[in-house]
């Protein structure tokens, strides 16, 4: 725009501040005061100036709107007569097509006046009032820009500061004494529309109040209450023996310790007859049994005695409480010299663990300290933790015996302790050690000797004399034969006991398995590996046994199988990942992530398995991963195998017979019930003990669905019980609190409300005998799911009546 076409600043300012003829307001007292046409004051010049200075940065809105807002902020609004003045103005300008809008905007102005008047006085007076004007008369957003609330009688942002300066400097005062042009409907509507937009933003007093205080138009809605899981009872801390039993290094030691706990008996600490303060009277009380009434009470007449008994006034004798058994600290000296190496060392350590077990003092715990007795000195041992026990096994001394260290212990200050020395039986015949033992007899209370044959002898020292208390013999072969106890795997608190095992106690049925060249691999020497619809890696070693779950979930993608005749490898390839799994079929799977080696983004490379290695073709060359040495052999070789023939030839008829010996799996259950014969009914199938020519079997027998039974509907799915979110669990809850989980892998987990009853897991197969497992480790049923020689196992009939029948009775 050229300078000649630019509006005159003086004229622009005058048009803004000049009073229109016949409008609701006017200047008086030479521009120092703005008042209604009826003579009531609206505001003083200083107040208006402060408001306009606040609004200048965004552009000046119509002056009539500013004055209306000033009027409704005042405490005198109701008595000002402003509504009548506005009605009179509306009658004068009511013409044209827009006339019908006046009534609407006057009504909305009255509503907005009530909103402003409903504010606390401190928000519409003084300095906080300036914030009110900024929020109510702020520009209207248009996209990313802002425009003034009304274009009529307003001043744009670029010229608002100059117009305000001309007014505050007094240069307009002479001109403002003369009224401007006649008021028009357009100007009146522009003023009212500014406040109408404010009413749309803040329709209630509370919304404007909240916005002025917090900057938000309304209080945020409360967040939905989170669905917190039911807090599970914390698992009791595992005992040291449980930890030892789960570790392969100490499983045999734990098994032997448990046997020794039952065989070792610590004699109680005896007292002289006069040391026990028994038989005395401790106090007199007004409560007790009639045989302890004071004799003086019996001298009362019958009525008085009865009254004293009823009113609790009769006096009784209170006997002394017997003293608690004396608990003395224990010290264990564990010989670690040359003769104790090998099996006696483990035998002695098991005896020490059995001796210090807290269960041997059920009421009051006796503090116990253990030392490794070397040739010249003693070393403190920690027999309260797994790491401490493993460390104790490594404490060995090359000295022929521990006589000097024993003499050193005997010279230590005497304390009231029960000291136990554990050493090798043949050392008692060695003169040097026997002499040291004689000197230390006053410091010892017990002597425990071990022998390579498994014999254990316990002696007690009393008044300097050694007495044989007991002799036991134990089979030390348990050190090599004791199986490692499966570790209890931490998981979801609602998960059944079956899922807390390190390895599944039963073999799985073939649920969700669709054999194809893309997800199945067969090696005659090893068996079949297949990836199910839910991405579980399953393995069948033989056609006469069920599936073992090698991996609960594998990443999605294309699968490439290979073998080195000792195990099976699986390469997973997708757009962002390159992973290789190795399954040795006898241990934990191993995994290597080669995703960082991928060069082309969002593109799956070509993969070939040949001669024990994976070849992955990439833009810069071929990546070679050697599965024998389990490392990358080459990254940029130019050779890529072509026309390679896979070792796997799909004979799906043979494979189907290998992974499934003729059963089907019941994966969906909608209703459960207990029939009149006290049998569990699942939809149209009944879990029944079936007599056969050889022995009873447990089967799911197809039966007509009985609508008269009180069926329990299967409830919502329970998520998060396994790492594989595609494995579904649907919950069934009985009114008494007992529950069942239908496992989509073809299992049913039953849990009674009675904590004394073990949980039971049943394989849901149709067409042949099934199997079951109880949470105490007992299994029964078809060897296809239990294995050839499960331990411990029970006959089907005994298992049914011991575990299943009581649980079903609870459901009734």
Outline: extended
* Total count of helical runs of at least 4 residues: 21
Contiguous runs where pLDDT drops below 50 for at least 5 residues: 1-5, 142-152, 359-364, 480-490
Mean pLDDT: 81
Number of strands: 39
Q: Please tell me how large the radius of gyration is.
A: 47 Å
Largest sheet: 7 strands, mixed
**Proportion of residues in extended strands:** 15-25%
Description:
The chain is of the alpha+beta class. The protein folds into 5 domains: 212 residues, no CATH class; 180 residues, no CATH class; 38 residues, no CATH class; 149 residues, Lipocalin; 149 residues, no CATH class. The protein is 26% helix and 23% strand. It contains 21 helices and 39 strands. A 7-stranded mixed sheet has the order 10-9-8-11-12-13-14. A 6-stranded antiparallel sheet has the order 33-34-35-36-38-39. β35 and β36 form a beta hairpin. α12 crosses α14. InterPro entries: bpX0, bpX1. Pfam families: bpX0 (PF19915), bpX1 (PF19917).
Note the main attributes of this structure.
alpha+beta, 6-stranded antiparallel beta sheet, bpX0, single chain, extended, 812 residues, bpX1, 21 helices
Give the arrangement of secondary structure elements.
Blueprint: H1 9-17, E1 25-28, E2 33-36, E3 41-44, H2 45-55, H3 63-73, H4 82-93, H5 100-117, H6 128-136, E4 140-142, E5 145-147, H7 157-168, H8 173-176, H9 185-201, H10 205-214, H11 240-246, H12 251-263, E6 281-285, H13 302-310, E7 316-319, E8 330-335, H14 343-355, E9 368-373, E10 378-381, H15 386-393, H16 403-410, E11 418-424, H17 431-439, E12 446-450, E13 455-462, E14 465-473, H18 478-481, E15 520-523, E16 527-531, E17 537-540, E18 548-551, E19 558-563, E20 568-573, E21 578-583, E22 590-593, E23 606-610, E24 613-618, E25 621-626, E26 631-637, H19 652-659, E27 664-665, E28 671-674, E29 680-682, E30 685-690, E31 697-702, E32 712-713, E33 729-733, E34 739-743, E35 747-751, E36 760-763, E37 765-766, E38 771-774, E39 779-781, H20 783-786, H21 796-811
Parallel strand pairs: 8-9, 8-11, 11-12
Antiparallel strand pairs: 1-2, 2-3, 4-5, 6-7, 9-10, 12-13, 13-14, 15-16, 16-17, 17-18, 19-20, 20-21, 21-22, 23-24, 24-25, 25-26, 27-37, 28-29, 28-32, 29-30, 30-31, 33-34, 34-35, 35-36, 36-38, 38-39
Helix pairs in contact: 1-7, 2-6, 3-9, 4-5, 5-9, 11-12, 12-14, 16-17
């Amino acid at each position: 725009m050229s300078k000649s076409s630019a509006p005159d600043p003086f004229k622009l300012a005058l048009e803004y501040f000049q009073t229109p003829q016949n409008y609701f307001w006017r200047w008086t007292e030479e521009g120092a005061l703005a008042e209604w046409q009826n003579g009531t004051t609206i505001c003083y010049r200083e107040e208006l100036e402060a408001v306009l200075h606040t609004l200048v940065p965004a552009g000046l809105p119509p002056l009539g709107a500013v004055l209306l807002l000033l009027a409704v902020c005042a405490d005198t609004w109701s008595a000002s007569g402003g509504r009548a003045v506005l009605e009179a103005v509306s009658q004068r300008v009511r013409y044209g097509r827009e006339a019908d809008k006046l009534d609407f905007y006057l009504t909305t102005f009255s509503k907005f006046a009530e909103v402003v008047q409903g504010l606390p006085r401190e928000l519409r007076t003084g300095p906080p009032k300036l914030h009110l004007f900024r929020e109510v008369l702020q520009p209207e957003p248009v996209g990313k820009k802002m425009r003034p609330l009304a274009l009529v009688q307003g001043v744009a942002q670029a010229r608002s500061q100059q117009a305000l300066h001309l007014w505050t400097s007094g240069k307009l005062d002479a001109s403002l004494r003369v009224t401007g042009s006649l008021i028009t409907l357009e100007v009146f509507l522009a003023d009212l529309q500014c406040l109408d937009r404010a009413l749309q933003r803040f329709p209630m007093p509370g919304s404007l109040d909240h916005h002025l205080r917090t900057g938000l138009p309304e209080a945020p809605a409360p967040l939905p209450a989170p669905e917190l899981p039911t807090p599970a009872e914390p698992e009791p801390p595992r005992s040291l023996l449980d930890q030892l039993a789960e570790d392969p290094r100490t499983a045999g030691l734990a098994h032997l310790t448990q046997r020794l706990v039952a065989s070792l008996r610590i004699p109680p600490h005896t007292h002289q007859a006069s040391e026990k303060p028994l038989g005395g009277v401790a106090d007199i009380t007004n409560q007790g049994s009639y045989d302890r009434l004071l004799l003086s009470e019996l001298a009362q007449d019958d009525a008085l005695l009865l009254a004293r008994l009823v009113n609790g006034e009769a006096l009784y004798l209170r006997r002394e409480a017997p003293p608690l058994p004396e608990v003395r600290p224990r010290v264990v000296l564990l010989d670690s010299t040359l003769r104790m190496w090998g099996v006696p060392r483990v035998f002695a350590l098991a005896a020490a663990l059995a001796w210090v077990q807290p269960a041997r003092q059920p009421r009051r715990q006796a503090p116990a300290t253990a030392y490794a007795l070397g040739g010249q000195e003693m070393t403190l041992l920690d027999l309260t933790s797994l790491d401490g026990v493993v460390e104790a096994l490594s404490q060995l001394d090359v000295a022929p015996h521990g006589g000097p260290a024993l003499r050193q212990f005997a010279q230590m200050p005497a304390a009231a302790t029960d000291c136990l020395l554990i050493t090798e039986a043949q050392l008692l015949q060695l003169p040097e050690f026997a002499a040291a033992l004689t000197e230390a007899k006053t410091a010892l209370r017990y002597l425990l000797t071990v022998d390579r044959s498994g014999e254990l002898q316990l002696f007690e020292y009393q008044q300097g004399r050694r007495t044989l208390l007991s002799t036991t013999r134990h089979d030390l072969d348990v050190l090599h034969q004791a199986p490692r106890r499966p570790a209890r795997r931490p998981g979801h608190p609602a998960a059944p006991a079956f899922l807390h095992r390190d390895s599944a106690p039963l073999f799985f049925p073939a649920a969700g398995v669709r054999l194809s060249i893309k997800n199945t691999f067969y090696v005659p020497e090893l068996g079949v590996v297949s990836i199910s619809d839910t991405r579980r890696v399953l393995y069948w070693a033989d056609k006469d046994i069920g599936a073992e779950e090698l991996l609960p979930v594998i990443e999605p993608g294309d699968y490439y199988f290979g073998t080195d005749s000792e195990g099976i490898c699986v390469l997973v390839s997708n757009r962002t990942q390159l992973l290789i799994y190795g399954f040795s079929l006898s241990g934990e799977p191993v995994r290597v992530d080669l995703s960082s080696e991928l060069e082309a983004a969002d593109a799956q490379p070509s993969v070939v398995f040949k001669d024990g290695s994976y070849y992955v073709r990439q833009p810069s060359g071929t990546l070679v991963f050697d599965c024998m040495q389990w490392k990358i052999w080459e990254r940029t070789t130019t050779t890529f195998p072509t026309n390679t023939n896979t070792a796997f030839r799909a004979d799906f008829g043979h494979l189907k017979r290998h992974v499934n010996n003729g059963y089907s799996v019941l994966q969906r259950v909608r209703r459960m019930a207990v029939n009149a014969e006290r049998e569990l009914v699942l939809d149209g199938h009944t879990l029944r003990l079936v007599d056969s020519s050889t022995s009873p079997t447990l089967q799911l027998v197809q039966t007509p669905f009985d609508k008269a039974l009180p069926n329990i509907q299967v409830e919502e799915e329970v998520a998060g019980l396994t790492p594989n979110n595609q494995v579904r669990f649907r919950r069934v809850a009985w009114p008494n609190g007992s529950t069942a989980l239908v496992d989509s892998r073809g299992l049913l987990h039953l849990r009674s409300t009675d904590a004394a009853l073990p949980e039971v897991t049943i394989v849901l197969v149709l067409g042949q005998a099934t199997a079951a497992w109880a949470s105490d480790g007992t299994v029964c049923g078809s060897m296809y799911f239990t294995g050839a020689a499960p331990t411990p196992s029970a006959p089907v009939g005994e298992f049914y009546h011991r575990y299943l029948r009581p649980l079903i009775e609870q459901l009734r």
